[in-house]
Amino acid sequence: MSQLLSQVPVLPVIMPLIAAPLALLMPKGRAPWAWATLVSWLIFAACAALLHNVANAGLISYHLGDWAPPLGIEYRIDLANALVLFLVSGIAAVIFPFAYDSVRSEIDERQSPLFYCAMLICIAGLLGVTITGDAFNVFVFLEISSLSTYALVAMGARRDRRALTAAFNYLVMGTIGATFFVIGIGLLYQATGTLNMADLHVRLAGQENRVVEAGFAFIVVGIGLKAAMLPMHLWLPNAYTYAPSAVTAFIAATATKVAIYVLVRFFYSIFSPDFAFMSAAFAYVLLPLGLIGMVVASLVAVFQDDVKRMLAYSSVAQIGYMLLGVSLGTKEGLTAALVHVFNHGLMKGALFMSVACVVLRLGSHANEAFHGLGRRMPATTGAFILSGLALVGAPGTVGLISKWFLLKAAFGAGQWAAGFLVVASSLIALIYIGRVAEMMLLRPPPAEGKLAGPVKDAPLSMLVPMWALIAANIYFGLQTDLTGGIASAAADVLMTIGGGR
Amino acid sequence: MSNAFAGVKPNDITAAPPEGADAAAGAADSLHAEPGKIANDILREAKDAAGAGPSFDVAGPDHADAATQTADAAGHAVEAAAHAADVIYTNPLPHVLILTAIVVGVATTAVGLALAVRVREAYGTIEEDELEAADHIAEFGAPPAETAEAGA
Q: How many cross-chain Cβ pairs, A to B, lie less than 8 Å apart?
């Protein structure tokens, strides 16, 4: 038994990787879904156990195949990635039970084993990126998750063929990002002769030369593309809009967050804020881009006539908040970024899930479909409004906690303008969420056309997971010990490794 | 083989004389300390160091009898040390990295081509301009030129 327990760190990656081809072999219909759901719950249990262990006993270092680092691949779990693992596996555990009806209506039944196979591979990739302590391993898992995401986005083609062009754009930009990232890793390897993150950190200390600088720049641009940092976000709105609803809910809540986590890991565990080029990158690149992203993407979101696309732009804006937190370069900023990674995953997941319910019943995510929804699908409307309030930052939800940490960090670092822009961007979020709320509550349902006619609320199989996620939104909004405490302890650890202020 | 070699592996560089062993150990350390240095150079250094050692005493402090070994045994020691240093290692990591990148590249190309096939099925064309025009019609209800005129 203890033998098995010592292998827990590898389970979140191994389980979906083995389960995925098995899902492919199953007959179409309910079997692959049930299998994937079961596996996602097991992964969640493993990740929760990891978080518990790390919180109590500190860093876990797992040597893959018993090859000692720095030569072997090491899985290195501290509080920062335990928190992200918990988020990704938790979202997966909620999305899978939710997905069945949504996927059945949006994807050809014959493709369902393929769909669940791709979802499991995507989870394996995202968890692998998060858990690993080896820089090249990050690239491999990043590509595993990205390739399956391209395929998943393209599966939306049955409902709207634009999913294909969106997926192709995503593929081209994502591959450019991955290439930049691997070039950066190559340069770091040339400068240090190692790929292990902890080892890289030791060897990079004091090396402030062109090779390291170039490697840093390539990595920031590469991961920036994957994270949809503002000028590199062009793949995101279309990919999120045309992907199948369940896929959007999953990747919106996890994929970009994992990319932000990778940025944090590289900034603080591999490089350190002592590097002169790091503080320059923070002050002149990441902070301005984060601020511009927050305001511009929020403004663009206000003028969308499609709710799903509006939420996609809102995601770009939220990435701006996380970048702001990271680029402050203080412990409080890092705490705020990690808290917001977790909280934004919860609220964006819930928002896209409520959109998925609307798509299931009305077959559309355009604004018109939301007219008068309050009377037609009250449970879904309630879910959308509550998670929308969380996005805005209403008291009692996770949104307020994120904003509170972020504002405290921004003012603490002397960035008054940034603090005010956070508030301004939240007010813009109030406008775009309020606009949809107005449509749902105050407008009459469409009287004629495709969207008219009686509509039932979403089935219980979708409502229960969605409301479970909303309960999490409120629970973590009131009970901040877990997220705030863990994030601040994680930031402490990262700062100590990074040797920052 | 004389008993001077008891417990010493044939390939073990530390079978070199004490001074040489120190130098070899130093060279092995520098594999980490000087990452730019090619591994082969380091091994050659180790070999030189092994050859340059003034004493061919292979005995550790716990092998008292080994100190009385004949010159023949010492000759064996030099041979073994030289043989050990002749084994040239290449760093496999860059190869592995490139191979992985190639595999990823092939997989990405496969997905991209599959998408192109699906695009062709759905749109009947893979011309970028026509695709954009078709998407434009889907979004705004008219081809790009007409909407531009209507706007003007």
A: 61
Chain A residue with CA closest to B133: the answer is: A162
Are A285 and A231 in contact by the 8 Å Cβ rule? The answer is no
Kindly list the distances between the CA atom of residue A439 and the CA atoms of A357, A371, A381, in Å, as whole numbers in the listed order.
Answer: 16, 5, 10
Contact A218, A181 (CB under 8 A): yes
Is A189 within 8 Å of B36 when comparing Cβ atoms?
Answer: no
Q: Do A193 and B36 touch (CB under 8 A)?
A: yes
DSSP string, A261-307: HHHHHIIIIIS-TTSHHHHHHIIIIIHHHHHHHHHHHHHHHHT-SBH
Cα–Cα distance, B20 to B85 (Å, whole number): 12
**Angle subtended by helix axes B71-86 and B39-52, to nearest 10:** 170
For A5, residues 6+ apart whose C-beta sits below 8 A from its C-beta are none
Distance CA A296, CA A133 (A): 35
**Cα four-point dihedral sign A429, A246, A229, A278:** positive
How many angstroms separate the CA atoms of A92 and A30, rounded?
Answer: 18
Residue type, A486: I
Interface of B with A in 15-74 (CB under 8 A): 31-32, 35-36
The partner residues of A60 in beta bridges, in order of sequence, read A77
ipTM: 0.87
- Classified as helix, coil or strand, B34 is coil
Q: Can you state the angle between helices A135-154 and A245-265, rounded to 10 degrees?
A: 160
For chain A, which residues lie within 8 Å of any Cβ of chain B, measuring from their own Cβ? Answer: 136, 139-140, 143, 147, 150-151, 154, 157, 160-162, 164-165, 167-168, 171-172, 175, 178, 182, 186, 189, 191-195, 203
Which element (helix H / strand E) includes A238?
Answer: helix A235-242
Decide: residue A264, CB within 10 A, 0-12 exposed, 13-18 middle, 19+ buried: buried
pLDDT tens by residue, A5-55: 788 899 999 999 999 999 999 998 899 999 999 999 999 999 999 999 998
Quick check: B35 and A192 CB within 8 A?
Answer: yes
The rounded Cα A255 to chain-centroid distance in angstroms is 4
Sign, Cα dihedral of A162, A225, A345, A93:
positive
Separation of first and last alpha carbons in chain B: 97
Separation CA A451–CA A440 (nearest Å): 14
| pTM of the predicted structure, to 2 decimals | 0.84
Written as six digits, the tokens of B105 are: 């590249």
Tell whether B97 lies on the interface with A, counting CB pairs under 8 A: yes
Instruction: Note if the bond before B35 is cis, omega within 30 degrees.
Output: no
Q: Does B123 lie at the interface with A, CB-CB under 8 angstroms?
A: yes
Q: Identify all chain B residues contacting A172, using CB atoms and an 8 Å cutoff.
A: 112
The dihedral built from the CA positions of residue B101, B106, B110 and B115, taken in this order, carries a sign that is: positive
Pick the closest to residue A347 from A173, A156, A81, A94 (CA basis): A94
Question: Two tokens at A42?
Answer: 């097991």
| Beta strands, E only, A138-283 | none
pLDDT tens for B18-56 read: 444 444 444 444 444 444 444 455 555 555 555 544 444
